[in-house]
Amino acid sequence: MTVEGTAQRKSTRAGSKRTAAKKASPTKKATEAKAGSRPDQAEQDQLVQLLTPEGKRVEHPEYAIDLSPEELRGLYRDMVLTRRFDAEATTLQRQGELGLWASLLGQEAAQIGSGRALRDDDYVFPTYREHGVAWCRGVDPTNLLGMFRGVNHGGWDPNSNNFHLYTIVIGSQTLHATGYAMGVQKDGADSAVIAYFGDGASSQGDVAESFTFSAVYNAPVVFFCQNNQWAISEPTERQTRVPLYQRARGYGFPGVRVDGNDVLACLAVTKAALERARTGQGPMLVEAFTYRMGAHTTSDDPTKYRADEETLAWEAKDPILRLRTYLESEGFVDEAYLAGIDQESEALGKRVRDAVRAMPDPDSMAIFENVYADGHALVDEERAQFAAYQASFADAEAIAEGN
Ligand SMILES: Cc1ncc(C[n+]2csc(CCOP(=O)(O)OP(=O)(O)O)c2C)c(N)n1
Ligand SMILES: [Mg+2]
């Protein structure tokens, strides 16, 4: 945790309704959560950072990166376009075009930094929030929206971009990634696998099992935890008493905490972790310390459980702003370049809106397809039942029309 992170959490949460209620009547749960939940100064110093919130370039003894101005501009463009896509999707949900949306607002650096560290032959297992990683893998952003509109069960072929389908069952993809990585190892390939998951998911048994298996089999997998401080309305201190990256030690592999709002640090650390995996050194846990700036999903209202001051404090650490400040201070971008990115954002927004509105409704019987590779008696039975149910409406319509 950063120094600011701790100070901010203490000051802002002290003012929240939740904490105020507990102050009036301290419960056992509150006392338990407090004990051991704050990392000490030495642990805060462990945070890998290469670009400060003020946009100053700093060095780290273990993780170095040397990028050309063009590469730096590329990271900026990735983050701006991803944010724009995400904002467009949120708006489309508000307009009734999507059933739900899980915004990545605030997590652009964690996703673009780690996503750009990957090689084409690496394989990604995402959650439901990895829109920036999908962008880096070359998945067309409009394909991400079908599932959220309810017109398909995924929207892309995972093997086209080595980017698995979004996974909603919390933590389960870490097991898929571990198994896949063990397969890569058996193939004798030198590609790596990366599993994304959240701070809340870290409490799932699936994650513990995947840590155990990947460690003992020395599987080439990177566990990339975006600690965005919240699992819906549950804060990180309800998940763990030690900084999450330290969990790895107990399983026998290294863990590192990186400033998740620093795209350069996320890139450098993920590259190093992938390299370890490729060269037979086994798994590694990367904890990207970041913040979910928006709601959990469009169905959530975070004002019910967290203080505005907390969100404001994290706004000052915005991942895009800090890179832009750095690029401007170095003279790596000019107004024409930035205006060009704005134009690209507008065009992307329009493309996304048009594509979503043009998505055809699926045939309602299509839900029974692809459940099993071959036929299955139960699915056949359910298909027949559903067909009869739908036909009952046709009968009712016929009666109403007097036929
Ligand atoms: C196995 C399982 N349990 C519960 C849920 C409901 N659920 C959906 S998102 C979520 C919180 C996940 O938080 P975190 O892992 O921190 O990821 P974030 O949403 O913050 O990116 C929960 C509990 C689920 N989808 N799957
Ligand atoms: Mg979370």
UniProtKB/TrEMBL annotation:
Domain of life: Bacteria
GO biological process, one term: branched-chain amino acid catabolic process
A molecular function (GO) term: magnesium ion binding
Keyword Oxidoreductase in annotation: yes
Keywords: Oxidoreductase, Pyruvate, Thiamine pyrophosphate
Annotated region described as Disordered, given as residue ranges: 1-43
UniProt biased composition (Basic residues): 10-21
Residue runs in coiled coils: none
Keyword Transit peptide found: no
Named cofactor requirement(s): thiamine diphosphate
Ranges for domain Dehydrogenase E1 component: 77-357
Compositional bias ranges of the Basic and acidic residues kind: 29-41
Classification via CDD domains: TPP_E1_PDC_ADC_BCADC
InterPro entries for this protein: Alpha-ketoacid_DH_E1_comp, DH_E1, PdhA/BkdA, THDP-binding
Name of the molecule in the record: Pyruvate dehydrogenase
Taxonomic source organism: Streptomyces chattanoogensis
